[in-house]
Recover the amino acids of this structure.
C-alpha cells in the first residue's frame, strides 16, 4: 500500500525567506503526487501535481516541487515566503484509482514578520 | 460554479444521536469522495463514488457509518449512533475524471466540523 511521510510537523520561517517542505512517498509504481494547502477553517486547495515528464513542477502562488525518484521524494519549495502562506501543507500520493488520495500528516507553516 | 458545498459547517451532537452530513459536488463531476481529518490519523479516505455508485468503502471505520449518493448532485454521510471518537472534520471532494487526465483534480469542500459530546 502507498504511504506518504512528511517528517516536519511544524516549520517557522521569516517572511521573505526561502522554504522547503519535505515529502517522501512509498509506492510500487510511478506515483501521481500532489501538494495541497489548507488555511484555517478552510478546505484543501491544490497547489501543484506531478504525473509524468518534467520532474520540476510549477504550481500556484509561486510554489514549485521537484520529483526525485531515486530519493522517493517530492519536496515543495518557494523562494520567498509571504505572511499569507501560513497554513498547513499536505503531500499526497494517488493510488492509480480515480483521485483516491493518500495524504501525509501535514506540515504546519508559521511565518514570522 | 460555487464549488463543493458541505452542510452543516459545524455540528455538535450528543453521543448516541444520529448525524447526517451533506455534500453537493461540483456539477458534472463523476467522482465524489468523503474524507475524515483528525489530529491522530490525519486525512483518511472513507468512501468514494463513481457516477453515484459506491466503488470503495474500505475506509469506512465501522457499520455505524453509511454513505449514499441518490443522485449526481447530492451525497450524505450518516453516523448512527454517533460516538465521541467520531469527532473530526469531514471533507467531501469531487473530481471530473480519473487522475490520469492532467486537467482533473479533486476539489474539496470546506468541511463539516463534528463534535460528539
Amino acid at each position: 500500500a502507498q504511504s506518504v511521510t512528511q517528517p516536519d510537523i511544524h516549520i517557522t520561517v521569516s517572511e521573505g525567506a526561502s522554504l522547503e517542505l519535505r515529502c517522501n512517498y512509498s509506492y510500487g509504481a510511478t506515483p501521481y503526487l500532489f501538494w495541497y494547502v489548507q488555511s484555517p477553517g478552510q478546505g484543501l486547495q491544490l497547489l501543484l501535481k506531478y504525473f509524468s515528464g518534467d520532474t520540476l513542477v510549477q504550481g500556484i502562488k509561486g510554489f514549485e516541487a521537484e520529483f526525485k525518484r531515486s530519493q522517493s521524494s517530492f519536496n515543495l519549495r518557494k523562494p520567498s515566503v509571504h505572511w499569507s502562506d501560513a497554513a498547513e501543507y499536505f503531500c499526497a500520493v494517488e493510488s492509480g484509482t480515480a483521485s483516491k488520495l493518500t495524504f501525509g500528516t501535514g506540515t504546519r507553516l508559521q511565518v514570522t514578520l | 460554479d460555487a464549488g463543493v458545498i458541505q452542510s452543516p459547517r459545524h455540528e455538535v451532537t450528543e453521543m448516541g444521536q444520529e448525524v447526517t452530513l451533506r455534500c453537493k459536488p461540483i456539477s458534472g463531476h463523476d467522482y465524489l469522495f468523503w474524507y475524515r481529518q483528525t489530529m491522530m490519523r490525519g486525512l483518511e479516505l472513507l468512501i468514494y463514488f463513481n457516477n453515484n455508485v459506491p466503488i470503495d468503502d474500505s475506509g469506512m471505520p465501522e457499520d455505524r457509518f453509511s454513505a449514499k449518493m441518490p443522485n449526481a448532485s447530492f451525497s450524505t454521510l450518516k453516523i448512527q449512533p454517533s460516538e465521541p471518537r467520531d469527532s473530526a472534520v469531514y471533507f467531501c471532494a469531487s473530481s471530473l475524471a480519473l487522475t490520469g487526465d492532467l486537467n482533473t483534480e479533486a476539489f474539496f469542500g470546506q468541511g463539516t466540523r463534528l463534535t460528539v459530546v
